[in-house]
């Protein structure tokens, strides 16, 4: 199953993560050897994509079965337009416990022969190719000297970002992600006057084959990692409530919350970056959701300390919201596929103070009897279980709550939490079953195990 090297990290970051996964509580419970084995599996699986694509369906607009049929038709049309000799089996399946999720199999790793002409792309672009995307021109950093549109090429991902833009060859740390056909001449891709846009290489024989969702049923389906969909259900929004999404961009969870409420109530979305707010509004419009109000604002300052705030937008008076989602900025080390992270230990460990500032604001903005959900897409103990332990000590009004659905593993030992507390946390840990996942098994059997790394905690304010 392993066709890529383990995720490439700075040595100091590897040791930081190892110390968490081999901490005293973990080692005492299962033994040092088992803990080390789990850690090595984690490094291996992070560099590989999950064996399926997760799609959240707009069930507020149409029944899941109808959306599944329409999606099957669209993807079959896509296949007919493809020049690939090998036809992809669509095989869409509903998730057994999430009534708005469709699962599509990913075929890979496939036996693909490398070509002599090599295109080099950035690591982020390479990861997108492994999830079914074509190569867009801005992601290309190197190509053959005389490459023309129509040339067959092999695509390689530059793991460490060391390929000089415009290079005609690169011998650094790179991995093969598949073959495609150039859609532009080299001169157009690296033109100095106007940056190239659009597809630079159309993938026809990728190492991992999954459908491209570019322009497929906009408004009806939304690409989203499975744990990110689970977050919305755990929050449990109800029609008529007022809900805050504190760090909302790009808006996938915001829109899901509004859909789960039947678009009845108010979902306030905040983010610090203006163009990300525009993206949230575009997504809301595309999904026909009217209950979302998005504001460009720093959520750490979202509580009004002065006289009653009269304006519609932030800052808000304390206890303004029935439910709050704090999907916090984090180190993002749970994302898959991720073949390399060039961050220093200082960068990886810089998020905890910000997360705590956001937590303070979230608790103040939440009504008594309200629900706060905290989530991250990272694997560190410091940003997950340690934050829960800190929050329970810092805010006596918070109590941990069971989650529904609970399809991930329980929380990880090492933060001093009790077994009962760990059981109600939800940590998506793909490494726990990395050597057992059979891609021939039914999607429903492997979907809950083969995910990105993710963490969810649910609190009640008493």
From TrEMBL:
Domain SAM-dependent MTase RsmB/NOP-type: 146-462
One Gene Ontology biological process: RNA methylation
Location of the active site: 377
Record has Transport as a keyword: no
Pfam families for this protein: Methyltr_RsmB-F (PF01189)
Coiled coil: none
Residues engaged in binding S-adenosyl-L-methionine: 247-253, 271, 327
Entry superkingdom: Eukaryota
CDD domains linked: AdoMet_MTases, PUA_NSun6-like
Keyword Phosphoprotein appears in the UniProt entry: no
Family: Belongs to the class I-like SAM-binding methyltransferase superfamily. RsmB/NOP family.
Protein name: NOP2/Sun RNA methyltransferase 6
């Amino acid at each position: 199953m392993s066709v890529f090297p383990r995720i490439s990290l700075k040595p100091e970051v590897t040791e930081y993560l190892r110390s968490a996964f081999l901490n005293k509580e973990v080692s005492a419970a299962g033994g040092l050897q088992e803990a080390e084995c789990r850690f090595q599996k984690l490094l291996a699986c992070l560099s590989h994509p999950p064996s399926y694509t997760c799609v959240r369906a707009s069930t507020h607009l149409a029944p899941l079965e109808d959306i599944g049929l329409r999606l099957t038709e669209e993807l079959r049309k896509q296949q007919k337009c493809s020049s690939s000799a090998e036809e992809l089996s669509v095989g869409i399946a509903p998730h057994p416990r999430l009534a708005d999720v469709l699962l599509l199999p990913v075929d890979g790793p496939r036996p693909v022969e490398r070509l002599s002409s090599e295109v080099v792309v950035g690591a982020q672009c390479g990861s997108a190719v492994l999830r079914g995307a074509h190569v867009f021109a801005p992601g290309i950093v190197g190509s053959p000297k005389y490459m023309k549109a129509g040339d067959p090429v092999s695509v390689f991902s530059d793991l460490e970002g060391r390929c000089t833009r415009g290079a005609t060859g690169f011998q650094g740390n790179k991995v093969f992600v598949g073959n495609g056909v150039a859609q532009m001449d080299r001169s157009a891709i690296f033109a100095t006057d106007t940056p190239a846009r659009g597809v630079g290489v159309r993938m026809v024989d990728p190492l991992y084959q999954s459908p491209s969702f570019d322009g497929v049923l906009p408004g009806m389906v939304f690409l989203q990692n499975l744990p990110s969909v689970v977050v919305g259900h755990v929050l449990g929004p109800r029609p008529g409530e007022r809900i805050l999404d504190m760090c909302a961009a790009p808006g996938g969870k915001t829109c899901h919350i509004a859909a789960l409420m039947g678009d009845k109530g108010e979902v306030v979305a905040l983010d610090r970056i203006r163009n990300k707010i525009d993206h949230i509004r575009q997504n809301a419009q595309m999904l026909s959701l009217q209950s979302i109000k998005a504001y460009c604002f720093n959520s750490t300052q979202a509580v009004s300390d002065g006289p009653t705030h009269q304006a519609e937008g932030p800052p808000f008076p304390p206890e303004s919201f029935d439910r709050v989602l704090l999907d916090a900025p984090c180190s993002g080390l749970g994302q898959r596929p991720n073949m390399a992270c060039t961050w220093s230990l200082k960068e990886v460990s810089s998020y905890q103070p910000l997360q705590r500032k956001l937590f303070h604001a979230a608790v103040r903005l939440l009504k008594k009897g309200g629900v706060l959900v905290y989530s991250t897409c990272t694997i560190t103990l410091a940003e997950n279980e340690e934050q829960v332990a800190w929050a329970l000590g810092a805010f006596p009004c918070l109590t941990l709550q069971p989650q529904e659905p609970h399809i991930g593993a329980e929380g990880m030992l090492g933060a001093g939490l009790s077994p009962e507390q760990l059981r109600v946390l939800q940590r998506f840990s793909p490494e726990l079953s990395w050597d057992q996942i059979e891609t021939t098994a039914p999607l429903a059997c492997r979907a809950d195990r083969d995910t990105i790394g993710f963490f969810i905690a649910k609190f009640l304010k008493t």
